[in-house]
Amino acid sequence: MDEDVAAPNEVFSLPAHTKQATKAIMLLLFFSFLMFTLPFGAYYGTKYCLEEYWHMSGYSTVVWSVLAAVVTVNFIILVYAYIAYHEQEYDDEGNPIEELKQD
Fold it and tell me: I need a surface site. Which of 1, 30, 36, 98 has the fewest CB within 10 A?
């Protein structure tokens, strides 16, 4: 094997900031997708269950379905904030920053 040929992972190495930004954008896109799809599923799923299994109809099914969608949205926001809060931070060289320890 030639010594002047670099390993494949060294040639396409990305800076730490780029990796961190890519991870943040992908996480945002994933949770945006969840925010768009899951509340609809919660609304129509709850409405279907209430009408088919509990034999409810009218205004009460709409209220409970909307409540399920709102709870779903708030849960997604809570999980996103939790993940963002506990994300590892890096310095300019790409090394993880340790938390400051108070004595």
Answer: 1
